[in-house]
Each structure stands twice: as structure tokens, then as C-alpha cells.
Amino acid sequence: MLKYLRIGLILLCAASLVSGCANMTARQKGFMKGAAVGAAICGGTAAYVGHQNDSNPDKAALTGAIACGLVGGTIGAILAKEDVVVPPEPVVEPIPEPVPEPEPEPAVVEEVKEEEVVVVEVREKIVLRGINFDFDKSDIKPEFVPVLDEAVEILNATPDVKVIIEGHTDWTGTEKYNLGLSERRAASVCKYLVEKGISQNSLETVGYGEADPIADNHTREGRSMNRRVVFKILE
Amino acid sequence: MLSVVLALTLSGPSTAVADPGKPAAQKSFEQFVNSWMSKLDRIGRMNILGIDIMPRDQGFVGRYVCYGPECKFSIKETGSHETPFVGLLHYSEKHFLKKGETRQKTFQCPGMLTKKIRVTEIFRFTRGKWVY
Fold first, then answer.
1. B18/chain A closest Cα distance in angstroms
2. How far apart are CA A50 and CA A60, in angstroms?
3. Do B122 and A150 touch (CB under 8 A)?
4. Measured between CB atoms, does B112 come within 8 Å of chain A?
5. DSSP secondary structure letters along B58-124
6. Hey, are the CB atoms on A130 and B132 less than 8 Å from each other?
7. Residue B122 and residue A126: Cβ atoms within 8 Å?
């Protein structure tokens, strides 16, 4: 019995060595692997059967190994994938990272004196406080009206300006919900202003949700400060 | 009798009058403004400490915002039953820039004022208190 195992192992090792050649194609390797496995299995089996039948086990092993080696090799070659020729990695000259155009510094940055500060883009902000809509609501409550009317008065005093109405929330609730809520509230305030005679064309609404806090959202006071409607009056 | 005296003692002077009259509202707004500007001052100091310093042009920059401390305020009667007064508070939102060769130097550099925006906050006096 040991003899047959030895024969099988020798055949398997030989076939494995051959199949491991580095410069073979995939199809050749497939053939060799198939042949090795076929030869090992069939050779061993044939030798064992030959011994059981009192025939010459060596001859049976050799015949079985050759026959099955050919069959296994053919199957292995068919199953093997064609070689994919991978071209060597081209040596590419490192392309320098594109240097972003430096953001133009405001002209007022260098050695600026407070008196010389030029207000850029946003001329003024009006922050409406206490516009505390009920949960999930955006309707204007009577107690908000004087605050909105005061804002209207300020806007009327500065005609021909573009105004961005921003809605801001605290971080209570989901980000998506807060974004939608702040948009609805900004739109609600905008509608009130238009009803009071402010030109729709001069108004634009933006909901920032919880994205632009001014105070710490971890405290109740901070959250109250973050809930606000802001008018940005542009140049 | 005792319970009535106790109730009067515990309730104390009423601070939540719907319309206390303009002088009282003016005084309470002054106190409110002091407290509000202190909050903004704290936020400004936190902004300096928490400044986000980014690499830029072989160096580093960081920007932050502070508020005030100078301010002006006034109140207006509205004629509204729910909100008899509104309070107006004016101050500046100041944008600063820090620059330096290293993060440490940038952090230590005094901020340069780059932008100043006039801010008007409008508060309402509802149910005897300033609401924000």
C-alpha cells in the first residue's frame, strides 16, 4: 500500500514542480496542473487496483498516470484562462499637483486700521429674535408682528438693496428636517414682507438649518441664540 | 390668613408685567442688553480659542468672528397688545484674520480686522420679558 502512495506522491511532486514554472503560459500551466492531478489520482488508483487483482501494480500505475495525466491535462488546459499580458507599469513623470489659484485677499487685510475697513458684500445684518415658531410650524404669530414690522421699517429706509432672508435652527431634530424647517420659516417671513410692500424681486430666501450656529448647541441658551431669522442686506 | 401672607411673601414683586410702561421696559432692556453683549463677548472669545488654522501660501491662516463690544440700543412702543415693545440693539460683527509661518505663530498672532458688518438685532417684549 505504501508503495502506491509513494508512486502517487512522486508523480504529484514531479507534476507540481513542472506546473510551477514561471515562464509558462496560463494554458500550459493549466495543462500541467490537470495532468499532475490526473496522474496522481489515476496512477495511485490503478496501482492499487492492479495490486488487488494480483497484476503488475507498477505497470498499472504508469498506464493510469499517463492516461489520466493526458485527460486531466487537456481539461486543465481548457479550463485555464488565457494569459492576460499586463504591461509593465509605465514610469510616469510625477505631475506636479495643480496649485490652486490663491484666493484673493481682501485689500483691507494688510496692516489695516479699523477706520479704513471696507465692508464687502454684506452691508448690514438684521437679526430677528423671538420669531419662535411652534413645533413644525411656520405661521406668523401675532406676537412676532411688531418685530417683523420693525424690520420692514428698516428695509423701507434702505430701498434698492438686495436682501437675503436666512432661516437658522438649533440642532434639535434631524439635519434634513431642520433644513426644510428653516427654509419654510424664511419663506414665511418673506411672504409677510411682500404683503407689507417690500418688492419680491429684492428678496431671496435661504434655509441654513442647523449648519451655521453662532453659539454652543449643547446649552439651552446657545440653542436659543442659534434659532434666528437673519436679513443680510447686500451692497 | 397665614397661607395668604405666605403666598404674598413668596410671590414677591411681579417682574412679568405685560406692559410695565416705557421707562421700566427701557431699564429692563438695558439689563437685557448687558447680559446679551456678555454672551456675545463669550462667543467671540470662544471663537478665538477654537480658531481653525489652515495651511495657505507657505504659511497658515485662521479666521474668526467677534461681536461688539461697543453697542447702542433703544426701545420702541408698538401698539401691540401681545408685544407692547420691541428693543433694537446695534453693534458690529467683526471678522478677523490671523497669519503666521507656523500654526503656533498663527495662533499667537494678533488678529487683523478684515471686515466689519453692522448688525441690528430686534427683540420683542412679550408677557413681561425680552424674548430671543
1. 12
2. 6
3. yes
4. yes
5. TEEEEEEEEEEEEEEEEEEE---SS--EEEEEEEEEEEEEEEESSHHHHHHSPPEEEEEEEEEEEEE
6. yes
7. yes
Chunked mean pLDDT (size 10), chain B, 132 residues? 39 50 92 96 94 90 94 96 96 95 91 95 95 92
CA distance A23 to chain B (A): 51
pLDDT tens for each residue of A28-87? 555 556 555 555 565 555 555 555 655 565 665 556 556 555 665 566 555 554 443 333
Residue among A127, A130, A132 minimizing CB distance to B119: A127
Domain spans, chain A: 2-79, 131-234
**Interface A:B, Cβ pairs < 8 A:** 101
Shortest Cα–Cα distance, A135 to chain B (Å) = 16
Give the contacts of B44 (CB within 8 A, at least 6 positions apart): B64, B65, B66, B67, B68
Considering the segment(s) A131-234 as one domain, its CATH architecture is 2-Layer Sandwich (3.30)
Residue A194 φ then ψ, to 5°: -65, -40
* Residue in A with minimal Cα distance to B123: A129
The reply to whether residue B122 touches residue A129, judged by beta carbons under 8 angstroms, is: yes
pLDDT computed for residue A196 by the predictor: 95
Closest CA to A168 of A123, A221, A213, A232: A213
pTM of the model: 0.62
How far, rounded to the nearest angstrom, does the alpha carbon of residue A103 sit from its chain's CA centroid? 27
**What was the pLDDT predicted at A119?**
46
ipTM of predicted assembly, 2 dp: 0.82
Picking from B126, B91, B95, B98, the residue whose alpha carbon sits closest to that of residue B113 is: B95
